[in-house]
Write a structure and sequence with these properties.
Helix content: 10-25%
CATH architecture of the largest domain: 2-Layer Sandwich
CATH class of the largest domain: Alpha Beta
Structural class: alpha+beta
Radius of gyration: 19 Å
Distance between the termini: 9 Å
Oligomer: single chain
Order of helices and strands: EHEEHEEEHEEEHEEHEEEH
Shape: elongated
Strand content: 25-35%
CATH superfamily of the largest domain: Pseudouridine synthase
CATH topology of the largest domain: Pseudouridine synthase
Length: 226
């Protein structure tokens, strides 16, 4: 049962195409209806609509711990598709350019993953939730095709494992610091292979000590709140 008095955190397995805000809105409706009063709710760490996986929902006093959760390292699994790019670096937008991949070897793929491990300055995607002059970057990018300039920020890739290669797809597991954009890693991965790449699937499997295996499936929410 949810501890409204002292606060609570719910681990959710966010479904594909849902925004993090939509998940919060649905849970907020459930809790407010159940307890008959408005209770503060938020999420720790946005997941893109086309990403799945662990989303921590903070309720009541636990909303004060959102920054604490966000600061913890994250773990992801997913895939890059080589030989093409999209404006958003993922499947939200259609392919805008294609590139050759015949020259890319397994050894080069492993080498680039190693080069992209460690601390580095990363430029976020223009279609991101970064704030610029009071607006989200993705909103500015969508408004009249406005050019958006984002500053590089230091991030750390602690582990970058290539788990499978099925050209043009490359499957990975990444452990990284707060603020890391896996879509930007896809962009850089393609460039370093003298080709192109975009993020074709992504799942967040861990935030700090919180694991996706302990999360509630979204379709089981009704049962959870009974």
């Amino acid at each position: 049962m949810i501890d409204i008095e002292n606060g609570h955190a719910i681990l959710i397995d966010k479904p594909y195409t849902w925004t993090s805000f939509q998940v919060v809105k649905k849970i907020k409706y459930k809790i407010n209806h159940l307890y008959g009063k408005k209770i503060k709710i938020g999420h720790a760490g946005t997941l893109d609509p086309l990403a799945t996986g662990l989303l921590i929902i903070c309720i009541g006093k636990f909303t004060k711990r959102i920054e604490e959760f966000q600061a913890q390292e994250k773990e992801y699994t997913g895939s890059f598709t080589l030989g093409a790019t999209t404006p958003s670096f993922d499947l939200e937008h259609p392919v805008d350019q294609t590139f050759p991949i015949e020259h890319i070897t397994e050894g080069q793929i492993m080498s680039v993953a190693k080069e992209l491990t460690g601390k580095m300055d990363q430029i976020p995607p223009i279609f991101s939730a970064k704030w610029i002059d009071g607006k989200r970057a993705y909103k500015l990018a969508r408004e009249n095709n406005q050019e958006v300039e984002l500053k590089a920020k230091e991030i750390e890739i602690k582990e970058f494992e290539i788990t499978q290669i099925e050209m043009p797809k490359v499957y990975f597991r990444i452990v990284c610091s707060k603020g890391t954009y896996i879509r930007s890693i896809a962009r850089d991965f393609g460039l370093m292979l003298q080709s192109g790449a975009y993020l074709s699937s992504l799942c967040r499997t861990r935030i700090g000590d919180y694991s996706l295996k302990d999360a509630i499936k979204f379709e089981d929410l009704e049962e959870y709140f009974q």
